[in-house]
Predict the structure.
Amino acid sequence: MHDSVISQEIYFYLLADGECEVIKDGKRIHAEYGVLERGSAFGENAMVFSDKDRSADIVASKSSSSISNKVVVYRLKRSVFHEYVGPDAIQELQNHTREIQRTIDVLSGVDTKTSEGTLIREYVPSTAWFWKQWTG
């Protein structure tokens, strides 16, 4: 069993020392996306979107590269973040985040999001689509 780094509290985290693993739906994410190292940040969606559930669990790695073999995180509470950033900047962050997610959805082949889950289709972009992305 791992020691959880994040909980249901709404915080943004900065990994100051150590190493963490990303667990999604009870399964460890492998390769570069499954390991957070010193300087990594997580919990950003919770800062911007009030209705977002945590997308993954972050747990202290048993093979931490830290000299002390401990994980050190700094955290920023959502209410403090909102107080300093302000509603206009929050709205702008939400818009940018949604735009990025739409682009990822197109590139990954996500067709439709439903309340039951996500329907995936194979995405084969046309030459015209690629040209439009290149030329703007």
